[in-house]
Description:
The structure is a single chain. By secondary structure, the protein is an alpha+beta fold. The chain has a single domain (11-119), classed as Aspartate Aminotransferase, domain 1 (Alpha-Beta Complex). Helices cover 47% and strands 21% of the residues. It is built from five helices and six strands. Strands 1-2-3-4-6-5 form a six-stranded antiparallel sheet. Strand 3 and strand 4 form a beta hairpin. The chain is globular, with a radius of gyration of 15 Å. The N and C termini lie far apart (51 Å). 25% of the residues are buried. Mean pLDDT is 93; it is low at 1-5.
Amino acid sequence: MQETKKSILTIEDYIQIQDKDKQAGLEKLRNIINKAAPKATECISYQMPAFKINNVLVYFASAKNHFGFYPTAKPIEVFKTQLDEKGLTYSKGAIQLPSDKPFPIKLIQDIVKFRIKEDEIKASAKKQGAKK
């Protein structure tokens, strides 16, 4: 079970305190996200692993029977058809990736790339606003 006393400062810290049977899946999800967002920085936000460029792009975490992937609400709306086709359970801001099935790698990477575009647009708008 998760330790709560150790301070989680890095994604590596987070993975190390998870159940052994979840660690490989977390590492694989980390690598999938990293490949889609090579310029992103790893961080911990809300005690979960996250990737950010200007703002946090996506979060991920371990749960009892699945891995949680948290890309915010907009990508879930945009990729709803693909999520349904893959038979994935999702809510407004979260996608459940079953522990006992292969990850939908392309879909995860497409969602991450979508979030990168959203992040760039938001950062650009913020810079434009600062120039006025």
